[in-house]
Amino acid sequence: MRLNVRIGYQHLFRLSKSKAKRVKYFVLLFFYGIEGKYKRYLTRVTLSDKIHTNGMYGGKLVARNKYPEETVKKILDVSEQLFLEKGYDHTTIQDIIDHLGGLTKGVIYHHFKSKEEIFNTILEKRYAIGVTDQIESMKDISGFEKIKKINSMSLRSLEHQKLAFSAKSLITNPRIIGELYAEAFTNIIPYIKSLVEEGISDGSIITDYPQEIAELIVLSTNIWLAPSFYKMNEEDLLRKLSFFKMLYDGVNFPLIDDDYIKDIVTMFRAIQE
User: Measuring CA to CA, how many Å separate 230 from each of 75, 197, 225?
Assistant: First the structure.
């Protein structure tokens, strides 16, 4: 019996939709704000004794591929390396094809509809999944510490930040920026609020305003402090950090400490190189 289904990349890498959707954005947005509305990157396949991936591209039949996961991985690996070497904006689909060792443009478009989708999938698969797994495995730490861990882990992946910051054409896209704001309120803030409430329950957070604290965390770390949205030098960044440290301390939520400031400044310097 054959059953037509849609298999998302999240499923291929054993990550639930809700985890990816919520943690991904909080982790990925700090320095660049490019993700926009969450998309599911889906491949149509037929399940039987073998996986068939026949499809059409430009009116032509795309050759059957018995190992679509391996093909997707190869496309992502090659694309990631090119994005890191040349930058997202200076890498073309043809560049990717030229480094795929015989794979055609039709094969790429069978799995991904655009270069932007390839880029977003790399960010999601490579980085959000690892952070999600780590956060989910932290059973013995408080809600407050989980929030701090998400913050610190999002800053310490230099390769990740450079990759994302290379996509300046996405950073300046008004549609992407608008979708980013909408996504923050739809998915990120509810997730962070759940961690704040967890902290209230375990005693690590004292507040009567979990919703407002969650909004402050997401908007300050992902938007107000993001140099992708505002032109700033290191002095500007330090001034903003000083202000937000005072603000967080004032509501008895010491999220910004000396280690956090050090991590942000280190990352800021690295992505300017």
Answer: 33, 32, 8
